[in-house]
């Protein structure tokens, strides 16, 4: 009679695994000089975004990220003179599913892409979205190559990064 009990537990675990995978944790690395008293901030919904914490451009990027219903967004704020490598040292100690840069330079995109590849070799799985990074040679790196995008709201056409 132990077999049906195991089967029930297995089904319950499978159902919760599907739900847990749908609600991933996103990590956005952004440069912002507006408020310098934090490096990491955890946001669980749009209401957690405070105007006094981020520039208008970064606030819009955070709101756009919430359109995909992540369980939470971990924001790593860098000063303008900081490097992406500094942020990735922090990311290495966090549980995140997807990583992206807000307005990262080409070399920053390449740095993120190569970091994802190096983590694969350590059997750690992170996924990243990079802009126009043609050297990405990993199944965990999504290369967004559109040079321009058109928003349906008042933003109109913007560059792809």
Topology:
Elements: H1 2-22, E1 25-31, E2 40-43, H2 56-66, E3 72-78, H3 84-91, E4 98-101, H4 106-121, E5 127-131, E6 141-144, E7 148-150, E8 157-159
Parallel strand pairs: 1-3, 1-4, 4-5, 5-6
Antiparallel strand pairs: 2-3, 7-8
Characterization of this structure:
This protein is an alpha/beta fold. The protein is built from 4 helices and 8 strands, in the order H-E-E-H-E-H-E-H-E-E-E-E. It has helices spanning 2-22, 56-66, 84-91, 106-121; strands at residues 25-31, 40-43, 72-78, 98-101, 127-131, 141-144, 148-150, 157-159. The strands form 2 sheets. Strands 2-3-1-4-5-6 form a 6-stranded mixed β-sheet, sandwiched between helices. Strands 7-8 form a two-stranded antiparallel ribbon. It starts with a helix and ends with a strand. The relative contact order is 0.14.
Short structural description:
By secondary structure, the chain is of the alpha/beta class. Helices cover 35% and strands 23% of the residues.
Features:
23% strand; six-stranded mixed beta sheet; two-stranded antiparallel ribbon; alpha/beta; 161 residues; globular
The global form is globular
Give unreliable regions as ranges. none
Q: Assign the structural class, choosing from mainly alpha, mainly beta, alpha/beta, alpha+beta, or little secondary structure.
A: alpha/beta
Order of helices and strands: HEEHEHEHEEEE
Main β-sheet, spatial strand arrangement: 2-3-1-4-5-6
Total strands: the figure is 8
Helix content: 25-40%
Give the count of helical stretches.
4
Write down the overall mean pLDDT.
80
Range of strand content: 15-25%
Radius of gyration, whole Å:
18 Å
End-to-end distance: 58 Å
Tell me about the biggest sheet?
A: 6 strands, mixed
């Amino acid at each position: 009679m132990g077999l049906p009990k195991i089967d029930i537990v297995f089904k319950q675990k499978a159902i919760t695994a599907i739900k847990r995978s749908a609600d991933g944790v996103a990590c956005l690395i952004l440069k912002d000089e507006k408020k310098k008293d934090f490096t990491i901030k955890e946001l669980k919904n749009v209401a957690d975004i405070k105007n006094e914490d981020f520039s208008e451009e970064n606030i819009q990027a955070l709101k756009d990220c919430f359109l995909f219903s992540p369980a939470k967004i971990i924001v790593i704020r860098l000063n303008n003179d900081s490097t992406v490598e500094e942020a990735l040292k922090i990311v290495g100690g966090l549980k995140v599913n997807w990583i992206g840069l807000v307005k990262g330079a080409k070399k920053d995109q390449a740095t993120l892409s190569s970091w994802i590849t190096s983590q694969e070799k350590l059997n750690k799985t992170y996924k990243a979205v990079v802009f126009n990074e043609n050297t990405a040679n990993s199944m965990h790196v999504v290369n967004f190559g559109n040079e321009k995008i058109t928003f349906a709201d008042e933003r109109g056409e913007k560059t792809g990064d």
